[in-house]
């Protein structure tokens, strides 16, 4: 009852019923009018013929010809009567002892259980006002109109039924693409998202729906795939340090060891556990950022943020004997202070870690709200450039073994910058250095 199909069908029926109904009524009354008009005209002609027989000299003494007598004879279904001063002064033989009712205008009356059409014709003779009433039995015409009405009603009913069926057919065709879309959606599950596709070759009105569903499928599929990949990566990353811990303890327990050997093992376990703790803490940060809806935004001085971040990393900079330099005049941004600090801590940390002894780190601040972090480090191989934002990705495994890291820094940075609608770009030449640009 509440379906589009039923409603469309109902509206279709109501509209076609109204249209055909009005058309039927119009057709019936038009024909009735035409029939009555032709009868009236014929009767008036007859009244006029009678009027010509009224002799001016003899007054209303009528001289009927044989023909007229025959026309209005006893058995005839045609009648007339002449009225003077509301009195019937002459009438046809066909009326016998009856008389026609005195009427004011042409009308249909019932006379001897039969429909009778009656018209008036006024004449004045010698200042005498006479009314000639002419009438005719119209039973056959009424029967004809009744038959016409029945045929009309049947035809209209048939037309309504046919058009309703046609409407149902059209509604079915129109709803087919919607049915198809809902069928595809009803069969959706996490595993077949990738293969789910709605045919976009549909009517114009449904095209945006199909396109946006397909986009949603794609996005959902991407999100599911990413999530699966993330879980797999996390498990893998945690498995390695856990295996190290297990191996170390097993070796240590195999036989009696010296105190120093136990101390070494415990230290190894401590270091590995710290690495695991680092992974888990960074993951928590990432998840927290991914779920952040409300940023604690305030106006920040970018130069001040960069200075504070680099101050926290001062020891590492000095340790590697790097020349650290900030250039350009500051600009203001509306951002979450802790998160933006996190961005610069990560990027400067990378510029330190992947630099060469006695290298340089230049931070350039441009008025178009752009910051560049340029280092003279080992650079990133070209084929790794577009993967550094992947979680746990570390370029060039041989060198990353020597440099500590989880491969999560860039993911974190990207996530935070996305939240602030800022862009990040990396430009790097192996063995020459790396330039990371941020556009707020
Ligand atoms: P962490 O999670 O501790 O930051 P990470 O530094 O290895 O670990 P990312 O900061 O995400 O992880 O960097 C990913 C990889 O990109 C690094 O492993 C490194 O190979 C490369 N990389 C990042 N910054 C630089 C840089 N300035 N110069 C050279 N390589 C870099
Ligand atoms: Mg890093």
TrEMBL record:
Domain of life from the UniProt record: Bacteria
Top enzyme class: transferase
Signal peptide annotation: none
Catalysed reaction equations from the record: ATP + protein L-histidine = ADP + protein N-phospho-L-histidine
Transmembrane segments: 9-31, 148-175
One GO molecular-function entry: phosphorelay sensor kinase activity
Subcellular location, record wording: Membrane
E.C. number(s) listed in UniProt: 2.7.13.3
Keywords assigned: Kinase, Membrane, Phosphoprotein, Transferase, Transmembrane, Transmembrane helix, Two-component regulatory system
Classification via PROSITE patterns: HAMP, HIS_KIN
Residue ranges constituting the Histidine kinase domain according to the UniProt record: 233-440
Entry membrane topology: Multi-pass membrane protein
Recorded GO CC terms: plasma membrane
Limits of the HAMP domain: 172-225
Pfam families, A to Z: 2CSK_N, HAMP, HATPase_c, HisKA
Coiled-coil spans in chain: none
Statement: the UniProt record of this protein carries the keyword Transcription: no
Protein name, as recorded: histidine kinase
Native source species: Thermodesulfobium acidiphilum
């Amino acid at each position: 009852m509440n379906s589009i199909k039923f409603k469309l069908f109902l509206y279709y029926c109501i509209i076609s019923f109204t249209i055909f109904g009005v058309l039927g009524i119009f057709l019936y009354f038009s024909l009735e009018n035409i029939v009555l008009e032709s009868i009236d005209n014929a009767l008036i002609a007859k009244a006029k013929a009678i009027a010509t027989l009224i002799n001016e000299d003899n007054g209303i003494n009528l001289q009927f010809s044989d023909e007229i007598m025959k026309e209005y004879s006893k058995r005839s279904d045609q009648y007339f009567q002449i009225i003077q001063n509301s009195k019937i002064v002459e009438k046809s033989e066909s009326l016998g002892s009856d008389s026609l009712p005195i009427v004011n205008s042409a009308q249909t009356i019932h006379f001897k259980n039969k429909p009778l059409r009656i018209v008036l014709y006024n004449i004045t003779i010698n200042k005498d006002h006479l009314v000639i009433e002419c009438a005719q039995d119209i039973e056959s015409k009424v029967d004809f109109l009744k038959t016409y009405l029945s045929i009309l009603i049947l035809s209209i009913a048939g037309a309504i039924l046919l058009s309703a069926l046609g409407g149902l057919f059209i509604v079915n065709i129109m709803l087919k693409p919607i049915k198809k879309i809902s069928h595809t959606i009803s069969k959706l599950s996490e595993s077949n998202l990738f293969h789910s596709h709605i045919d976009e070759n549909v009517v114009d009105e449904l095209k945006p729906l199909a396109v946006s569903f397909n986009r949603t499928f794609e996005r959902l599929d991407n999100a599911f795939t990413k999530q699966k990949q993330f879980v797999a990566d996390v498990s893998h990353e945690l498995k390695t340090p856990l295996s190290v811990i297990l191996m170390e303890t097993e070796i240590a327990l195999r036989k009696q060891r010296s105190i120093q050997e136990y101390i070494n093992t415990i230290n190894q376990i401590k270091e590995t556990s710290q690495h695991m703790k680092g992974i888990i803490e960074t993951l928590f940060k990432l998840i927290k950022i991914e779920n952040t809806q409300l940023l604690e935004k305030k106006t920040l001085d970018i130069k001040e943020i960069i200075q504070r971040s680099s101050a926290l990393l001062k020891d590492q900079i000095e340790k590697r004997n790097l020349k650290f330099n900030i250039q350009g005049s500051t600009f203001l941004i509306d951002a979450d202070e802790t998160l933006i600090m996190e961005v610069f801590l990560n990027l400067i940390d990378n510029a330190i870690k992947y630099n060469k002894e006695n290298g340089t780190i230049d931070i350039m601040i441009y008025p178009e709200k752009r910051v560049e972090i340029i280092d003279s480090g080992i650079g990133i191989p070209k084929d790794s450039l577009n993967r550094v934002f992947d979680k746990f990705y570390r370029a060039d495994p041989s060198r990353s073994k020597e440099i500590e890291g989880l491969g999560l820094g860039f993911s974190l940075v990207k996530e935070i910058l996305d939240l602030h609608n800022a862009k990040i770009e990396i430009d790097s030449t192996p063995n020459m250095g790396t330039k990371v640009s941020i556009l707020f």
